[in-house]
Amino acid sequence: MTLLDTINSREALCALNDAQLRQLCDEIRQFLVLNVARTGGHLASNLGVVELSVALERVFDTSRDRLLFDVGHQSYVHKILTGRRDEFRTLRMFGGLAGFPKPSESVTDPFVAGHASSSVSTALGMARTRTLQHEDYHVVALMGDGAMTGGLAYEAMNDAGESSEQLIVILNDNGMSITPNVGGIAQHLALIRTRPGYYRIKKAYRAVTAKVPGGKCLYRLTHRLKEHWKRMLFGTTFFEEMGFEYYGPVDGHDLKRLEYMLRLVKDRRHPVLLHVITQKGKGYAPAEENPDVFHGIGHFDPEKGMEPRCGHLPTFSDTFSETIDALGAQEPRICAITAAMLRGTGLDAFAAHYPERCFDVGIAEGHAVSMAGGLAKQGMIPVVAIYSTFLQRAYDMLLQDVAMLGLHVVFAVDRAGLVGGDGETHHGVFDVNYLRSVPGMQVLCPASQAELGQMLRRAVLEMTGPVAVRYPRGCDGAFTGIAEQPCLREGSDITLVTYGTLVNEVLAAAKLLEARGISAEVLKLPSIKPLDVRTVAASMRKTGRLLVAEEAVCIGCVGKELLASLRARGVGGPVRLCNLGDRFIPHGAVPELYRLAGLDAKSLADAAWEVCQNEA
Ligand SMILES: Cc1ncc(C[n+]2csc(CCOP(=O)(O)OP(=O)(O)O)c2C)c(N)n1
Ligand SMILES: CC(=O)[C@@H](O)[C@H](O)COP(=O)(O)O
Ligand SMILES: [Mg+2]
Questions:
Q1: At residue 307, does pLDDT exceed 90?
Q2: Which uninterrupted H or E stretch holds 38?
Q3: What is the average per-residue pLDDT within 416-426?
Q4: Active-site residue, selected from the candidate residues 92, 230, 393, 545
Q5: Which residues lie near ion ligand 3 (Cβ < 5 Å)?
Q6: Which of 102, 111, 489, 541 yields a CA-CA distance of 20 to 30 A from 320?
Q7: Which CATH class is domain 487-612?
């Protein structure tokens, strides 16, 4: 039995002495490594916040106080300490523990999270509610230095700093986003880190005034003067200029000091920012050495600290990486842009070869897209590589700063479709709707990596105006070729229409239908805007029945547009639209989620079979 096994309440955690707390932190680190090695997940960030999370749970009552994790990928220790330790076996699995905060799991998770830079906004909303309702709980936002590169954080701090609300922002500064943090704020933080005298002068002053008779009074009277000296000597931090009281920097692995500081800021009656310095990956050598690799990782060997190499098939992102790298050599006007996802998108190769043409803008998707507009207007060819889910942040910029001028910007929309373990905050299931709603946008949907390479080259070198190429997380399915024509399989009883890698399920469904005596024609659309309605209409005139399968929410889906266009052309007959409906899809392995949504081969075959029971 470990010490960790005995911590079943906040009272038990609060009763531990210093030595026991050190032991507990070691055990939590071992627990994290062993469990994430089995399930995969976000390891390095969690290893970095072990002491910080323990201190937070001791100083605050997270069942009553509101603790908001920014992004939320670093909430594992909080989950372990708030009654969910045993569920880590099921981390990120279908029906299991979520990898991000989830109010439905625990009262100690006050909000969902997954996208960066929103915690201070949410925290301020809660703090204002507390004031309006005359309550007295604490509100704490825990935000990383990477999340601090997102514009939303500044909007919130601008408002919060002036609000005079009691609000605590903890800045967990490890110098890292997924890769090393970028930009002016990263430099500002680095500067503060090298000037710890800033906090020391305050502490020394407090100690001296505490010793003299009437010291408390002296402290209060001379506080302003001291602040003035401090500013003269050390300058001010950005946070103070925004209206926050700044505390720090404090060593985030010194549990005693952390607790002391947390208790100090807990008593403040206005917005405060506590600057905590941590090491990403702390305590596990492979993660300390390669925090970016262990940021989000699949299952790995905890002894060797490596992911199994065998079975690592090339992914769509790998193909994007190779293709854009090769295009960079061919066309000097190509610029690549990432919003803090250099490795995930595969732009690292391009960045290594053409550093002057590759821009990591931080977690700033809106800025990335508007900047691409500027680049395109002045004659460059920007390729903006952003995950589908994060591009949601830049919808207005797509409209105003790219499409309205018809600018040639290529959007490499990675992680389109269901992504698996990250779950509802990360599935790329809205872009079919939002991209197609942008006037002038062309949307290509490769179904294999070979098609991705070909389409990307065409989008960059031959097409004009805004073009999105959307492709999924992971590898090819059975379909690996390049379709010269939309019709992949001829049939006479029903037309099955799809696009992207869902074609693999649809082709398998056609086979199942064949075994049941139904002849299905399979059409794969290379583009979902513009739509090739004529080909679908011709096929449906032949078969008389239609099923459209897509990995997208139902509002704004391709099936609905096809249906309307077919009806307008006078093409009728029984139709079934198979999609994700009007809901959020949970976390789990993609095949399980396909089954949940009725998009696996068997469910599709069943649906098509039902349609075929109707008269054409
Ligand atoms: C809007 C948005 N863009 C991109 C991401 C992908 N992302 C997740 S964590 C992360 C880095 C966050 O860095 P930081 O906040 O410093 O936390 P750390 O991992 O260092 O603990 C990024 C870029 C995201 N979650 N949300
Ligand atoms: C927390 C977060 O938003 C990212 O770390 C994300 O989980 C990365 O996803 P991939 O593993 O698909 O790159
Ligand atoms: Mg960080």
A1: no
A2: helix 18-39
A3: 98
A4: 393
A5: 144-146, 174, 176
A6: 489
A7: alpha beta
